[in-house]
Design brief:
The structure is a single chain. The protein is of the alpha+beta class. It has one domain: Alpha-Beta Plaits, CATH 3.30.70.1060. The protein is built from two helices and six strands; from the N terminus they run E-H-E-E-E-E-H-E. A four-stranded antiparallel sheet has the order 2-5-1-6, covered by helices on one side. A two-stranded antiparallel ribbon has the order 3-4. The model has no long low-confidence stretch (mean pLDDT about 85).
Length: about 140
């Protein structure tokens, strides 16, 4: 079965349908309802046998580049005006087909925002190209 990554973003992607404020400006009960929905999605995926992994990410980020054979990695935290994308988290799913991945992405997009209104946020759906071969012990 194909695996897909459903990417949620703090910002980036197509213009949002609803101009909601950033989550750090939401009422505590709205944040709690949103996080409960995310937990519900993970539980639903587990029940359906489609769950692989899910994680939330902090907005803080560091860019790293190879510094050369005798140098430390080159790092910076920005600013990077050429890229406004910032990934908030993801679900990794294992589903029967692309259509099911799109169906689940639409459901994830319906997460509640301020006042319980669906966010209708854009979810980036990416198919995983390959998996590391599984090894077996010949002991």
């Amino acid at each position: 079965m194909p695996k897909y990554l459903l990417l949620k973003r703090y910002r980036g992607g197509p213009e949002p349908h609803h101009p909601f404020p950033p989550m750090d400006q939401w009422a505590p009960e709205d944040v709690e309802a949103h996080m409960a929905f995310q937990k519900h999605v993970s539980e639903l995926l587990e029940e359906n046998g489609e769950y692989v992994d899910a994680r939330a990410l902090t907005p803080a980020r560091t860019w790293v580049s190879y510094g050369g054979p005798d140098a430390a990695p080159v790092t910076t935290d920005g600013p990077h005006p050429e890229t406004s994308d910032l990934v908030a988290g993801w679900y990794m799913i294992d589903v029967e087909c692309r259509e099911r991945a799109l169906e689940l992405a639409a459901y994830v997009s319906s997460a509640p925002g301020p006042g319980g209104e669906p966010l209708c946020e854009w979810i980036d759906v990416r198919e995983v190209m390959w998996e590391r071969p599984r090894t077996t012990d010949a002991a």
